[in-house]
Design goal:
The structure holds two protein chains of two kinds. In chain A, 0% of the residues lie in helices and 45% in strands. By secondary structure, chain A is an all-beta fold. In chain A, strands 2, 4, 5, 8, 9 and 10 form a six-stranded mixed sheet that branches. A four-stranded antiparallel sheet of chain A has the order 1-3-7-6, with no helix packed on it. In chain A, a hairpin with a 5-residue loop joins β6 (65-69) and β7. The chains are: A mainly beta, B mainly beta. Chain A binds chain B through residues 3-4, 31, 33, 35, 40-45, 48, 50, 56, 59, 91, 93, 102-103, 105-111, and chain B through 4, 6, 32, 36, 41-46, 49, 51, 90, 92, 94, 98-107.
Chain lengths: 117, 114
Amino acid sequence: GAGVSQSPSNKVTEKGKDVELRCDPISGHTALYWYRQSLGQGLEFLIYFQGNSAPDKSGLPSDRFSAERTGGSVSTLTIQRTQQEDSAVYLCASSERGRGAPFNEQFFGPGTRLTVL
Amino acid sequence: AQSVTQPDIHITVSEGASLELRCNYSYGATPYLFWYVQSPGQGLQLLLKYFSGDTLVQGIKGFEAEFKRSQSSFNLRKPSVHWSDAAEYFCAVGPPGGGNKLTFGTGTQLKVEL
């Protein structure tokens, strides 16, 4: 079956512009995560959606970052007034929920490489 | 706060040689432990995970990892490396009560010489 997909694969923007990054999770997965991978650093947790529950936004680095998940499926990560330090690879992951495992495996998409000039 | 340390940023091994990638964690209790691999232009793929029980876990692609509580370590090993193993490897921890967030190390870039 199809895995997690993300679009665009690459995005180049100018400082100060807004960008939207899209994630299509695996069908049937109720949990969705966004991570940021900056050069020379590990993956940094940004936000987590689980079903209809309020999202865990504790990893968002500033109020310029926001995300939504419509209909419990597709998610969009929005970065307003982009800065050069926002340049990174943004990874999306999804997982099942409540199948008895203590920690459900997260399946990752290929990422969106964002470059802010 | 929890943290994950991968002390080796780059490692180069010859094809056929053995491999060990180091991972140490700092956590209040034994967390759930994971190793992921990321090939160029690809998403992360789970190699193996440890939740409880046998401290030596087997994963895909011939990888294994050993959990050592006394050393707060979860090192990844492979007896004989193949050229296709060249990639970046990430160790990650998740909260022992389950939950959502994974905390990742900074990664180890593996180069395989033919």
